[in-house]
Amino acid sequence: MVLLRKDIYTEDYLRKLGLNERQIKAVLYVKEKGSITNKEYQNLFSVSRQTATRDLSDLVKLGIFKRVEKGRYKLKTHHESNMSQP
């Protein structure tokens, strides 16, 4: 038996969450590349370290990203997202 999981991180879904364009593009980037660092975020979107940190922290608070090491972020899996909810 093969279990297919629906990709919930579509552009439409991310827009409904109220993400800004940078954050949406960052989620799509991580879906393709596997992870993103604060420095990569700064370079991709020509923003300051503070803006990158704020945007990435918001994605963590929303349960979309998880911080896996200093300055590196990955998508939370569906299973991880469900575990963090009461």
TrEMBL record:
UniProt-listed Gene3D superfamilies: Winged helix-like DNA-binding domain superfamily/Winged helix DNA-binding domain
GO MF entries: DNA-binding transcription factor activity
Name used for this protein in its record: HTH deoR-type domain-containing protein
Domain HTH deoR-type positions: 19-74
UniProt keyword Transcription present: yes
Keyword match Transcription: yes
Source taxon at top rank: Archaea
Pfam families referenced in this protein's UniProt entry, alphabetically: HTH_DeoR
Keywords: Transcription, Transcription regulation
